[in-house]
């Protein structure tokens, strides 16, 4: 029996509860900002990877976004349907394709960036520069801990 968790465990006193709640709230808020521009927060890592006008394979995007292959396939299909990306055959892999942003999506990027910056300012309103730096450092450590520790 695992004795590390007390029977009186209080989720609201745990960091994981608040990180999860903050993540969900942030995702919802940023999606509201991005939706009118044709983007979603879950797509941002893909959009960012393609923002320079280049193209990338699904495999490369999976690595950059750190999502499962099937999740990426669904995301790319939605993004193609919504006119955010186009796909063309990959000359280096006959079974794969290369994704790139549509001209329309690239034109909307500056507004999307501005919306995300506004969201960041709201998120950190009232924080000093030192507090912002500390929060970033702590969150990076949390992510590092999660990414290098196997689930037991």
Largest beta sheet, briefly? 3 strands, antiparallel
Number of strands: 3
Number of helices: 6
The overall average pLDDT, rounded, is 91
Please estimate the helix content. Answer: 55-70%
Helix/strand/pairing category = mainly alpha
Query: What is the overall shape?
Result: globular
User: What Rg, in angstroms, do the CA atoms define?
Assistant: 19 Å
What is the strand arrangement across the widest sheet?
Answer: 1-3-2
Identify low-pLDDT runs. Answer: none
Q: What fraction of the residues are assigned to beta strands by DSSP? A: 5-15%
If you consult CATH, what is the topology of the domain at 40-116? Arc Repressor Mutant, subunit A
| CATH architectural arrangement of the domain at 40-116 | Orthogonal Bundle
* CATH superfamily grouping of the domain at 40-116: Winged helix-like DNA-binding domain superfamily/Winged helix DNA-binding domain
What is the CA–CA distance across the termini? 13 Å
Describe what you observe in this structure:
The chain is mostly helical and 152 residues long. A three-stranded antiparallel β-sheet has the order 1-3-2. It starts with 14 loop residues before the first helix and ends with a helix. Strand 2 and strand 3 form a beta hairpin. It has a domain of 77 residues: Winged helix-like DNA-binding domain superfamily/Winged helix DNA-binding domain (Arc Repressor Mutant, subunit A), CATH 1.10.10. Helix 1 packs across helix 5 and helix 3 packs across helix 4. The chain is built from six helices and three strands, in the order ααβααββαα.
């Amino acid at each position: 029996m695992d004795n590390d968790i007390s029977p009186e465990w209080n989720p609201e006193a745990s960091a994981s509860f608040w990180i999860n709640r903050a993540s969900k709230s942030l995702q919802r808020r940023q999606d509201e900002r991005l939706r009118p521009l044709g983007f979603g927060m879950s797509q941002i890592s893909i959009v960012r990877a393609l923002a320079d006008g280049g193209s990338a394979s699904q495999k490369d995007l999976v690595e950059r976004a750190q999502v499962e292959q099937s999740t990426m396939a669904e995301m790319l299909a939605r993004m193609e349907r919504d006119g955010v990306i186009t796909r063309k055959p990959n000359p280096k892999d006959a079974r794969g394709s290369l994704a790139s942003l549509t001209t329309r999506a690239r034109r909307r990027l500056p507004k999307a960036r501005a919306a995300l910056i506004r969201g960041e300012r709201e998120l950190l309103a009232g924080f000093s520069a030192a507090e912002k730096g500390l929060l970033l450092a702590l969150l990076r450590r949390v992510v590092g801990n999660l990414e290098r520790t196997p689930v037991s």
